[in-house]
Amino acid sequence: MPPQRLRVIACNLFWRELCWCAARTPNLLDIEFVELGEHAQPNRLRERLQERITAAENEDKAYDAILLAFGLCGNATVGLRSARTPLILPRAHDCATLLLGSREIFRKHFADNPSRGFSSSGYMERGDYFLRTDEAGGTRVQPGDEYAAYVAQYGEENARYLMETLNPAHAAGDDTSAIFIEIPETRGAGALERFLEKAQAAGKTALVLPGNLRLIRMLLDGEWPEAEFLTAPAGQAIAGVYDWDRIVKANAS
């Protein structure tokens, strides 16, 4: 099979991981990065991503697919669509799934609190970040956009149930821990050590989880099984499913 020409739009917290995998894929890639800080404002991030998708399709090059190295990310990817090029998106709630390598591992560690704070070399390098934060500086992702989407699709009562199920209250003592996801191949010099220092200074118990490049490698290599990735055909918009399995889908309308 000849190499595919792929456009990649990614958060720059994946800079090391994307570059490591890009150097090893047979496909031809054009990669552009969005600043990590954009994730704190999902509506603005959605606008930025749609602008990048539209710009890619207006270039002289014809791409076989546009890859989005994002998850739902606070609904930032909901509503994105292309005019003539398939969009490929991992079935992931957020970037922790991509760093861990599977949504099953994400669920194992985050099912009791999907908004639990975490960090990585990318978070430590690409901004003044200790843990993933929201726009107010807290470690919890703001649920406003997500809740509005639930209400629109399922009604007020069901929306409350979904929010309580997928975003339970912090368990006692949960805020005393801090997770660092470390990928051996792309370990940032001193990133883990700085994280441990900050965790200790903040009075948090540090938990280091092994990361895995599996999903990022599959994304760039063109391995997109339906169970792991959404392929949104041209003209169809990405929509949230908000479960632990599909997570995202494509809507024709």
Which residue ranges are poorly predicted, with pLDDT under 50 across at least 5 consecutive positions? 133-145, 168-173
Radius of gyration from the CA trace? 18 Å
Query: Which H/E pattern describes the elements?
Result: EHEHEEHHEHHHEHEHEEE
Distance between the termini: 33 Å
Task: Briefly note the structural class of the backbone.
Answer: alpha/beta
Structurally, the number of domains stands at: 1
Report the strand count: 10
Number of helices: 9
Q: Give the mean pLDDT.
A: 85
Helix content: 25-40%
Shape: globular
Strand proportion: 15-25%
Q: Main beta sheet: strand number and arrangement?
A: 5 strands, mixed
Strand order of the largest sheet: 2-1-3-4-8
Describe this structure in words.
The protein is an alpha/beta fold and 253 residues long. It has one domain (5-251). It contains nine helices and ten strands. The strands form three sheets. A five-stranded mixed beta sheet has the order 2-1-3-4-8, sandwiched between helices. A hairpin with a 7-residue loop joins strand 9 (237-240) and strand 10. Helix 1 (15-22) crosses helix 9 (214-221) and helix 6 (144-154) crosses helix 7. The protein is globular. The chain starts with a strand and ends with a strand. The relative contact order is 0.18.
